[in-house]
Design a protein that fits this description.
heterodimer, A: mainly alpha, ABC transporter involved in vitamin B12 uptake, BtuC, 2 domains, two-stranded antiparallel sheet, 14 helices, 2 strands, B: mainly alpha, globular
Chain lengths: ~325, ~290
């Protein structure tokens, strides 16, 4: 049990060190992608809590990212401080999560998937139609970046460090949640809901809580996103993006703490890497997803587990073969 | 008041198409536990296939027939063999993800490989309008509704009255006892996939004249089919019909009397209300869960 934890710690330290040094070697577009990736990491970590740990299927994470982004943008434009807008975005998403999750989570199965997908669709309509609030398809522009204790975080590198700090704090928070009795209850639910319930865990309450917390993560990511791009309009928050985020979590490995880090990297970098495919890009991405599922139904981070299982199986079979040959020679000797 | 009835009737026509798609979705779920997120694309692809055959000079019905056979082969048998069979034993999630990937492939394959534009599609029915008791009804609405209902009841009769259909029902209700009774479960599941392909192709024939053939025509349709299936009740194939019709009619009414901008939100609102008060769907029965 200690080795994976130790390895995880080591990996985390290496990643953090890289994250601190790397921005100084990047041009502004690279830095933008890196910051974008971190925001997606926060967002998909929330989704991983819902999908990977609580075992639900949620296809509306981009909608919560959108709620966060619009809330923050509207508050900032109204002159409120970023340090108020950020928690407000998270809190609003938490409440919306409860509102959407409550009916859908009263029943198991895939209802949450459809409820969240519909919510995502509905929110796109609201963003597009309620011009007095969201600016319609023209969106909201000139969203300011924050300053902290008199230090402006306007620069790309400074803002990157802010996002990085937020990512680290949120990861630690998630780590804490997962290690707490709450977190243990989430995983118990996913692995065997009926047993968990008979042990006195209130399934509905815990899954709803997991869903609301996961949505709040997206809200915070949204607030950071609004100030990163400084111009928001409805399209980065539509259902297709929600589905993409779900795919990121699943590809990275749902239920693995670092799964979203890899999944989000693939999600952010894949459009760059597959640029040669031009119009065929999404086709190719879909094909990769199908192929990956056929090959690794439990995501990329399940490769080590799979290898270990294979090794064990091989050792076992060779042990069995040894035993058999031993047995036959013995038998032969007796005869 | 006549306006109202006209809206209801054209809503019924749209709703019957939702119902066709929803029925296929429900049947797949019952027989094999497959949740197919490419449901809408299973309607879009046959539409383009029919267009392709028509551009070769074939008449509409001949293209429909050939496309039907192709659909059964590719979207029925092929889909089951290549995607569902290897993934179904890993639980629901990998299969959901794979069908999402599949829908991305189909949608964007058509966009990149064929065209991103919308194409008009000939209707089976004339565009004349006739008047019954002061209500103006278009022939195409009437024909669409009639055609869809005939197909849905045809499938219902097949499932309820024929030996094969009853065997399929047995598989859907309890796979293990069906095996014990000597039913060829694999073949019955395959039949279900074939029926799903037939329903999808029929839906394509009926919906494309209205929606136009476009690479993303399936996304809204597929989503409403899911909601229709749940609103009506997942465990009952008649539920798909009821759910589809309810969504079609209330969408039309809300579009006219409440707000055209939020027409597409109606299905979601209905869905939320239904699962809040009757989680098993309107016609659904509570299923005892298995430990």
């Amino acid at each position: 049990m200690t080795t994976p934890t130790k390895r995880n710690t080591a990996i985390t330290v290496v990643i953090t060190a890289c994250a601190l040094i790397v921005p100084h070697f990047l041009k502004s577009y690279g830095l933008y992608l890196l910051t974008y990736w971190l925001i997606y990491v926060i967002c998909t970590m929330g989704l991983n809590l819902i999908v990977g740990y609580a075992g639900q299927k949620a296809l509306g994470q981009a909608a919560f990212l959108g709620i966060g982004a619009y809330t923050s943008a509207i508050l900032l434009k109204a002159g409120y401080s970023f340090w108020l807008a950020l928690p407000a975005s998270g809190a609003l998403c938490f409440l919306m999560g409860i509102l959407v999750g409550f009916p859908a989570l009263r029943v198991q199965m895939v209802y949450l998937a459809f409820a969240t997908m519909g919510f995502s669709e509905l929110l796109s309509l609201v963003m597009r139609n309620e011009e007095w609030l969201t600016g319609g398809t023209f969106g909201i522009s000139d969203i300011p970046r924050p300053s902290l204790l008199g230090i402006s975080l306007d620069g790309n590198v400074a803002y990157y460090y802010l996002v990085l700090t937020c990512t680290v704090i949120i990861s630690l928070l998630l780590w804490g949640i997962l290690r707490s009795p709450w977190g243990k209850a989430f995983t118990a639910l996913r692995d065997n809901p009926i047993r968990a319930e008979s042990l006195g865990i209130d399934i509905q309450r815990y899954t709803l809580l997991a869903f609301a917390i996961g949505s709040a993560f997206a809200g915070i990511a949204g607030a950071l996103f609004a100030s990163l791009v400084q111009f928001i309009e409805p399209s980065p928050f539509n259902t297709q993006i929600s589905i993409m985020m779900y795919l990121m979590v699943v590809i990275g490995g749902p239920g693995y703490f670092l799964g979203p880090v890899i999944g989000a990297a693939i999600g952010v970098l894949a459009p760059e890497a597959l640029r040669f495919a031009e119009g065929w890009y999404l086709f190719l991405f879909g094909a990769i997803v199908v192929g990956l599922m056929l090959w690794l139904p439990n995501g990329l981070l399940s490769i080590p587990v799979l290898l270990r299982e294979k090794r064990l199986a091989r050792e076992e079979s060779s042990a069995r073969a040894n035993f058999r040959s031993l047995a036959t020679t013995k038998n032969g000797g007796a005869r | 008041m006549t306006d109202f009835f006209q809206l209801v009737f054209s809503g019924l026509a749209t709703g019957s198409i939702y119902a066709l798609t929803a029925l296929g979705f429900t049947l797949l779920w019952q027989a094999s536990g497959t949740v197919n997120f490419a449901t809408g694309e299973f309607v879009m692809l046959p539409a383009f296939s029919m267009l392709a055959f028509m551009s070769l000079g074939l008449p509409l019905l001949a293209s429909f027939g050939i496309t039907m056979l192709l659909s059964i082969l590719v979207l029925g048998w092929g889909f089951k063999r290549v995607i569902v069979d290897p993934l179904i034993r890993h639980g629901m999630m990998p299969l959901i993800v794979a069908t999402i990937g599949l829908s991305m492939m189909m949608r964007n394959g058509v966009r990149a490989g064929y065209s991103a534009e919308a194409f008009s599609f000939p209707s089976l029915f004339s565009d004349s309008i006739f008047t019954i008791a002061g209500i103006r009804i278009s022939a195409s609405d009437f024909g669409t509704f009639g055609f869809a209902i005939v197909i849905i009841f045809g499938v219902q009769m097949f499932i309820q009255k024929t030996v094969t259909g009853r065997a399929m029902q047995a598989v859907a209700q309890n796979t293990e006892s069906a095996t014990v009774l000597g039913i060829n479960v694999k073949r019955m599941v395959l039949y279900t996939f074939a029926i799903n392909a037939i329903l999808a192709t029929t839906a394509a024939l009926l919906v494309t004249p209205v929606y136009l053939a476009k690479f993303d025509m399936g996304s809204g349709l597929g989503f409403k089919a899911f909601l229709a299936a749940i609103i009506g009740g997942f465990s009952n194939s008649r539920g798909a019909l009821l759910g589809g019709l309810i969504i079609g009619v209330s969408e039309n009414l809300a579009g006219a009397y409440v707000s055209p901008a939020y027409k597409d939100g109606v299905a979601l609102a209905l869905f939320m209300v239904v699962i809040l008060f009757k989680p098993t769907g309107l016609l659904g029965k509570t299923i005892e869960r298995k430990v």
